[in-house]
Amino acid sequence: MNAITTPLTVEGQSWNEYTLSNDNGMSVSFLDYGGIITSIITPDKHGNYENVVLGFDNYKDYLNNSNYFGALIGRVSGRIANSTFSLNGKTYELPANEGKHHLHGGPVGLHGVIWQVELIETATSTGAVLYHTSLDGDAGYPGTVKFKVSYTLTNDNEFTIDYEAISDQDTILSLTNHSYFNLTGNLKDTVLNHDLKIDASQYVELDHELIPTGRLVPVADTVFDFTKGRKIADGVGSNDPQNKIAGDGYDHFFIFNHKEDVNVELSEETSGRKLTVKTNQPAMVLYTGNSVDDSCTLKERQSVKHLGVCLETQSTPASLNYPGFPSILLAKHETYRHTTTFKFSTL
Ligand code: G6D
């Protein structure tokens, strides 16, 4: 187990890239800028170690990361409709960065700050703790919030992200990671032929601006039913209006049943790679890279649509406007504590 730090100078800014490596040869690399995960190297069924996430070839491109490749997202993941919300009788106006809506924490969200990183090694893991303090009024949000996010890699090829935060005022908070996974290895193909299983019986309907309508839709008898597993391709070219609204694929919030051992299983037959996700979050956005075009130069190739799949465990800002959705409220001095483990193995 080890962790190495590589100082970088990117457009005059001083960044660091950290690489956590376990004894099996798996590694996870990330930046202090935005907590961005830049690569995850895992073996295929033949023992070939290859990268399984989308990352830029040139670090400077992370300064204009409209796909949020690898990024730590917050203060609130997802879309806050009309960039406004009310809390304790007060209305807050946030910066609109996608039409009239507020997406992924706004133009200067947590994906665009430099986190303070402390490397930590234990007998069974190597990792880092990322610290940041967001002041009251940052991006329009109430409360000074202290963040502590841990990245931990074990010799079981498990990579865990633990999110902790505490605010000095009532506020809203919903953090996630926006890595695009591709289990083919070094982005050999899109993720359309990946097999996906999600322990979720309902998803949230979207309107044409990708804002939740407040309607929970049963997945049964639709291409949104991943309970028994299906190809990601089933949602591409599908006649379901929700797949079309999402830009020909999925971009939807699935409410976990939390009835299975794991919440999500992603696998790819040719490489034999498998990724299981276990989280205490109530739900997840499944996003199949529908807006990714050919404009990004990644380490291995030029980007294309559907080149990666995001498994963004989180709660939903829809809870600000509709009852019954997993809440994103964080009370003053309450500790926000969520964890998601990504376990890599082979079929
Ligand atoms: C698109 O709608 C999707 C979002 O879910 C995603 O996070 C973003 O691209 C990167 O806006």
UniProtKB/TrEMBL annotation:
Q: Determine the domain of life of the protein's source.
A: Bacteria
Catalysis: reaction(s): alpha-D-glucose = beta-D-glucose
Pathway, per UniProt?
Answer: Carbohydrate metabolism; hexose metabolism
User: What GO molecular function annotation could you give as one example from this UniProt entry?
Assistant: carbohydrate binding
CDD domains (alphabetical):
galactose_mutarotase_like
The GO cellular component terms are: cytoplasm
Q: EC no.?
A: 5.1.3.3
Q: Which UniProt keywords apply?
A: Carbohydrate metabolism, Isomerase
**Which residues are recorded as binding beta-D-galactose?**
178-180, 251
Active site per UniProt: 178 (proton donor), 312 (proton acceptor)
Gene3D superfamilies recorded = 2.70.98.10
Xref: InterPro entries: Ald1_epimerase_CS, Aldose_1-epimerase, Aldose_1/G6P_1-epimerase, Gal_mutarotase_sf_dom, Galactose_mutarotase-like, GH-type_carb-bd
Q: What is any Pfam family matched here?
A: Aldose_epim
Keyword Ligase assigned: no
Q: Name one GO biological process term.
A: galactose catabolic process via UDP-galactose, Leloir pathway
Q: What class of enzyme is it?
A: isomerase
Family of this protein = Belongs to the aldose epimerase family.
Q: What is this protein called?
A: Aldose 1-epimerase
Organism lineage string: Bacteria, Bacillati, Bacillota, Bacilli, Bacillales
Gene name as annotated: galM
